[in-house]
Design a protein that fits this description.
The chain is built from 13 helices and 18 strands. It is of the alpha/beta class. It folds into four domains: 124 residues, Methylthiotransferase, N-terminal domain (Rossmann fold); 121 residues, Transcription Regulator spoIIAA (2-Layer Sandwich); 119 residues, 2-Layer Sandwich (Transcription Regulator spoIIAA), CATH 3.30.750; 55 residues, OB fold (Dihydrolipoamide Acetyltransferase, E2P). It has a five-stranded parallel beta sheet with strand order 2-1-3-4-5, sandwiched between helices. A five-stranded mixed β-barrel has the order 14-15-16-18-17. Strands 6-9-10 form a three-stranded parallel beta sheet. Strand 3, helix 2 and strand 4 form a beta-alpha-beta unit. The longest helix has 25 residues.
Length: 436
């Protein structure tokens, strides 16, 4: 019996795709193993959004080839799409065992790999920008999780000046509504209680479909047809948050009060050079409307520091905007120069030391924001979904509806669906809670 080992780097879309690869392998009788050294096939789904992610992807490929001297190693994902030659030239490896398949090939790579077809060994056959339709991938179950990811959209046409993703993922493409509903039904049958609706630019869902349905319409349909499942939106651009989405979040009990919004910078000049298409004033107005409409919502920001030309005063604009807004957590990362993007050619690159100091300042602020949000709910009760297959000693971990991480004592019977918990006290970066 053949065995396969899967490794995933990067975003939720990659995680969905790897779960689809797992389903395809199991349908063909291949056993998915956690032991790299016993695998006959190794699949590495790579990331290249930052230089660090690209380096981690290459290290994962080298590790696979070194620790297993017989398996075929299939490399796919964004790093494979853009860095074919770099992967082939990795030092001290047996490149004859390396199979590279770009993002244009994800529907067929498992079939080709198992059949031994040589076409997966070549460069991507189609320029990714020419791909018109989203890859049709199906996941049977997200093993070990009560929460599942549902990729409804791929690609991006925003071309932020720092971002390599449009070159790696291609144009925006949406999954037809019927296929979205089919995947949600599969998850329901598999016993998943929460679905995270995700994509590369999920707010663009539906623009390329003949059927008229945008992201709000899709969420509305999902919430109505699968009323026993909690739905969570992975990320959405600030100017794509309108009254319709906020009203749905108020009215649909199973649409979680959670918005993850990319800010990137709080300085107007930096935003303009980033090609972000909004101002700090517009962003603040959006956040104020979100908080007014959904007072209990978790509101998280992505923030980039050290963009070329970002001065101390420009960084202070970001810090001040975040401090004065009611966000509940931050994802902070330093600018990473990606060859092929406009920002890679910009002058006035910020030093590594300056970037790291700014990262630490905002991460500290983010922890303060999170703690303040958590404290608001001490001694209150919230619905929570616990990861019943991810035990930590005698405790269960999970998240409330508004994305507060909670830790509860292990009950006599593991919960099979969302539970009500009472939040008791802060415990590190989570909240101790008890099941009511």
């Amino acid at each position: 019996m053949k065995k396969a080992y899967l490794s995933t780097l990067g975003c939720k879309v990659n995680q969905f795709e790897t779960a689809a690869f797992k389903s395809q392998l199991e349908q063909q009788g291949v056993v998915v193993t956690s032991d790299l050294e016993e695998a006959d096939y190794i699949i590495v789904n790579t990331c290249t959004v930052t230089a660090k992610a690209g380096g981690e992807s290459r290290r994962e490929v080298r590790k696979a080839l070194r620790r297993n001297d017989r398996a075929k190693v299939l490399v796919t994902g964004c790093h494979a799409q853009l860095e074919h030659d770099e992967l082939i030239r990795l030092p001290d490896i047996d490149s004859s065992r390396l199979v590279i398949a770009g993002n244009d090939a994800k529907e067929r790579i498992i079939t080709n790999l198992l059949a031994g077809h040589s076409e997966t060994d070549s460069r991507p056959r189609v320029e990714i920008r020419q791909v018109q339709e989203i890859a049709s991938l199906q996941v049977d179950r997200f093993a070990g999780r009560t929460r599942a990811y549902l990729r409804v959209q791929d690609g991006c046409e925003s071309f932020c000046s720092y971002c390599i993703v449009p070159y790696a993922r291609g144009r925006s493409r949406s999954l037809p509504l019927a296929e979205v509903m089919r995947q949600a039904f599969i998850y329901e049958q598999a016993g998943h209680h929460e679905i995270v609706v995700t994509g590369i630019h999920v707010g663009r869902y539906g623009h390329d479909l003949s059927e008229k349905c945008n992201i709000v319409g899709l969420l509305d349909r999902l919430c109505q047809e699968f009323s026993s499942i909690r739905f969570r939106l992975s990320s959405i651009e600030p100017l794509e948050i309108g009254p319709e989405l906020l009203n749905l979040m108020i009215q649909a009990e199973n649409l979680m009060p959670h918005l993850h919004i990319p800010l990137q910078s709080g300085d107007n000049e930096v935003l303009k050079r980033m090609n972000r298409r909004y101002t700090r004033e517009q962003f603040r107005e959006v956040i104020d409307k979100c908080r007014a409409a959904v007072p209990d919502a978790a509101i998280g920001f992505d923030v980039m520091v050290g963009f070329p030309g970002e001065t101390d005063s420009m960084f202070e604009q970001s810090r001040e905007l975040i401090e004065s807004s009611e966000c509940t957590y931050l994802h902070v990362f330093p600018f990473s120069k990606r060859p092929g993007t406009r920002a890679a050619e910009f002058e006035d690159q910020v030093t590594t030391d300056a970037k790291q100091k700014r990262v630490e300042i905002l991460r500290t602020l983010g922890r303060e924001k999170s703690s303040a949000f958590y404290r608001r709910y001490i001694n209150s009760r919230r619905d929570a979904l616990l990861e019943t297959e991810k035990l930590s000693g005698s405790a269960l971990k999970g998240y409330t509806d508004n994305y507060i991480p909670v830790v509860t004592a292990l009950p006599r019977e593991l919960p099979t669906e969302p539970v009500v918990v009472e939040l008791i006290e802060l415990s590190g970066e989570a909240v101790k809670a008890r099941i009511v």
